[in-house]
Amino acid sequence: MVLHTRGAAPIDELVDRARAHVAALDADLPIVSAKPLADHLRGALLLLDLTATMLFVFGVAGMALAAMGTYGLVSYTVKQSTHEIGIRMALGASGASVVRAFVARGLKLGATGAAVGVIAALGVGRLVNSVLFGVSATDPVSFGRALAIVLAGVVAATIVPAWRAARTNPLSALRHQ
């Protein structure tokens, strides 16, 4: 049997009153567990909270791995393009244009990955719809925020190698083969 009570009195006093009323009705009916509703809800929602926390941690880890992969790929591209960067800078290209070029390459890569991710998320959305509360699996605001986070991660991972490319000395880059 579950009995819910509400009152302004402290929990101990309410439990004593409830025990007295239950004992008056049936002396063989014990009150096994008495706790506030907040504690009861916390226990009931513990698994959902743990699942949400784990999904967040795995999402952050996945985003970090993707950013490291993008950083490595753009760094490798910068290293392979040292001669090209030297020619561009010797012909008068500004450092900002070199940064823009490599950030654009990174964003093109990130946009391709984001497009594939959106298509996959729309396809898998029906499977996770039952565990979503207050939002649909195809919520455009959630998709927009996720895309913004992914593309911000791409820009953050791309900006360091692009800035390094812009600082390339044209003479040493032209000697590099």
Main pleated sheet: none
Shape: rod-shaped
Order of helices and strands: HHHHHHH
What structural class do helix, strand and pairing data support? Answer: mainly alpha
Number of helix segments?
Answer: 7
How much of the polypeptide forms β-strand, as a percent range? under 5%
Radius of gyration: 30 Å
Unreliable stretches, pLDDT < 50, 5 or more residues? none
- How helix-rich are the residues, as a percent range? over 70%
Distance between the termini: 81 Å
Mean pLDDT level: 85
Assembly category = single chain
Count all strands and give the number. Answer: 0
Polypeptide structure, described:
By secondary structure, this protein is mostly helical. Helix content is 76%, strand content 0%. The chain has helices at 11-25, 37-44, 46-80, 82-90, 95-128, 140-166, 170-175. The N and C termini lie far apart (81 Å).
Give a concise summary:
This protein is mainly α.
